[in-house]
Amino acid sequence: MATTFDELAREVLRFRDEREWGRFHTPKNLAMGLGIEAGELAELFLWKDDAEIAEALRDPAYREKVAHELADVQVYLLVLAHASGIALDDAVRAKMTLNAQKYPVEKARGNAKKYDEL
Amino acid sequence: MATTFDELAREVLRFRDEREWGRFHTPKNLAMGLGIEAGELAELFLWKDDAEIAEALRDPAYREKVAHELADVQVYLLVLAHASGIALDDAVRAKMTLNAQKYPVEKARGNAKKYDEL
Amino acid sequence: MATTFDELAREVLRFRDEREWGRFHTPKNLAMGLGIEAGELAELFLWKDDAEIAEALRDPAYREKVAHELADVQVYLLVLAHASGIALDDAVRAKMTLNAQKYPVEKARGNAKKYDEL
Amino acid sequence: MATTFDELAREVLRFRDEREWGRFHTPKNLAMGLGIEAGELAELFLWKDDAEIAEALRDPAYREKVAHELADVQVYLLVLAHASGIALDDAVRAKMTLNAQKYPVEKARGNAKKYDEL
């Protein structure tokens, strides 16, 4: 996790550009692809309860499947951020600043309610 | 994009832990949340064609909405990777190595077919 | 639930056509919209465990929210099936016939494994 | 499409109950499953533009794939509606009544904007 977002984005875009897939990579297609990969990721957790998932994650073969699906989501996210002219790290920090206002520590602590129900 | 995955994960987890949300953050809930955020991201592109999206992305207010939704997906991804004991940067590289075998440059160039149809 | 799929599809398409939304309703957009609505539906269950959801479903206001999101998914499904020239009822029966082969009662009983792991 | 929602729900639930899958079918799992199936459906349209999809839908093998994925979404929807005590046909009509207020014909005609932007 010592890689910067910039470095990993560059590696992913090089992989993509070597295959000349750029013209398929419109924001709309990438957002659709990201949703599909999110579904494949979720499939690994469906039908299992939390204890079964914790147990399964100790198995390297299962954890590798999870890693592959996490990677697919991350790849789409990096390419979509690039296509949208958005820096992911800045975006996360800006969103956390916003969320800190919507979910002040004192009100949100230990509480899964949405901000408009707090 | 000069931030490392480790640094951003630490910031996100600190935000989370200050609010004591960790006990809700099972891999299953996080994967479900990630899919929901992917849907909110996609909503920004629905009903628009590629030219309209390119145009809309020049508007800072629209681009900020996209940034917020990209951020939400990235946050869930960082927390889910952490909960699963997986390093996102390593996972992306391992997946690209695998994809390089499934999609060799000569066969995949300019082609959006799935590897099993190449 | 005494309505036929045909009747409900006709009502939905009439609503759509009165608003001249047909030209936006390509299969691709409809599939994307369906995924977005599936996310909004899932959001009603996120952060709640099964007992909390069972409890919440006794509240008419919450059940109405669930009903609205189920309806949105059903609407997209009816319109997408129409746009694809597919009869939903036939499609479900054909898929169940297929699933009956993949998941024979004796092997699948009480078992959430995927057919290729049975 | 002459089947009623009730009839198809009964067939799907019989299939399910013969396999004793009911205990896995909590609303939360079903909503997650529905999202996953929505992703598999979307995958059939990803990377294709509208003209390519229209062309592909003329191929019976492709249309069958679409039908299978539509069916999977419909199955989850029927079972989730049942688990939530909601009649899908009533829910669709109630939602259309609501949408008719949010999207009056005169304002919404030919317009893909969200109601709060109309």
Topology:
The structure is a homotetramer of 118-residue chains.
Chain A (H helix, E strand, L loop, with lengths): L4 H14 L8 H17 L6 H7 L3 H25 L3 H15 L2 H4 L10
Q: Please mark out the parts of chain A with pLDDT under 50 across 5 or more consecutive residues, or reply none.
A: none
In CATH, what is the homologous superfamily of the largest domain in chain A?
A: MazG-like
CATH architecture of the largest domain in chain A: Orthogonal Bundle
State the CATH topology of the largest domain in chain A. Answer: Helix Hairpins
Number of strands of chain A: 0
Task: Specify the overall morphology of chain A.
Answer: globular
The chain-level structural class of chain A is mainly alpha
Descriptive overview:
- Chains A, B, C, D: This is Nucleotide pyrophosphohydrolase.
- Chains A, B, C, D: GO terms for molecular function: dCTP diphosphatase activity.
- Chains A, B, C, D: InterPro entries: dCTP_Pyrophosphatase, DCTPP.
- Chains A, B, C, D: Pfam families: MazG-like (PF12643).
- Four copies of one chain form a homotetramer.
- With 118 residues, the first copy, chain A, is mainly α.
- The first copy, chain A, has two domains: 5-86, MazG-like (Helix Hairpins, Orthogonal Bundle), CATH 1.10.287; 87-117, no CATH class.
- The first copy, chain A, is 69% helix and 0% strand.
- The first copy, chain A, is built from six helices and no strands.
- In chain A, helix 2 packs antiparallel against helix 4 (60-84).
- Chain A is globular, with a radius of gyration of 18 Å.
- The mean pLDDT of chain A is 96.
- Chains in contact: A-B, A-C, A-D, B-C, B-D, C-D.
- Chains A and B meet through helix 1, helix 2, helix 3, helix 4 and helix 5 of A and helix 1, helix 2, helix 4 and helix 5 of B.
